[in-house]
Write a structure and sequence with these properties.
Strand content: over 45%
Largest sheet: 8 strands, mixed
Order of helices and strands: EHEEEEHEEE
Radius of gyration: 14 Å
Helix content: 10-25%
Oligomer: single chain
Distance between the termini: 15 Å
Structural class: alpha+beta
Strand order of the largest sheet: 2-3-4-1-5-8-7-6
Length: 118
């Protein structure tokens, strides 16, 4: 498996407004998108931080703390390699219209992580 970097971080929080303000006003990250229970931020190098409120329906499994997304060169091959090592994935590989793809899994520590391919 070829890891290309730490590309993404997501967090689900009961303190949504405070967390959004922290990343926007203190960390000075650029807001890329905002909705009622979601705000995404860009780093200058293209990496992303996403903040999810507790009402956001798609990330309810983010219960172990912030989730780190590891960039990979080939998401299918990386997933097969992790599964062969006994790693349990949460659902299928997902994607968006830009070609970005991701897949969440439980690490051996019980925390949720992600592999992501841009």
């Amino acid at each position: 498996m070829e890891i290309t970097g730490l590309r993404w971080l997501g967090t689900r929080t009961e303190k949504f407004s405070e967390t959004v303000s922290f990343f926007r006003d203190v960390m000075n990250l650029e807001v890329k998108e905002t909705q009622e229970s979601y705000t995404g931020f860009n780093f200058p190098n293209g990496d992303t931080v996403e903040v999810f409120g507790v009402d956001e329906p798609d990330h309810k499994f983010f219960t172990t703390g912030p989730v780190a997304g590891f960039g990979v060169a080939d998401i299918e091959a990386s997933r097969r390699e992790l599964e062969a090592a006994g790693i349990e994935f949460i659902g299928d590989i997902h994607g968006d219209e830009s070609g970005h793809r991701w897949s969440h899994f439980y690490g051996p520590d019980g925390n949720v992580y992600e592999i992501t391919e841009a």
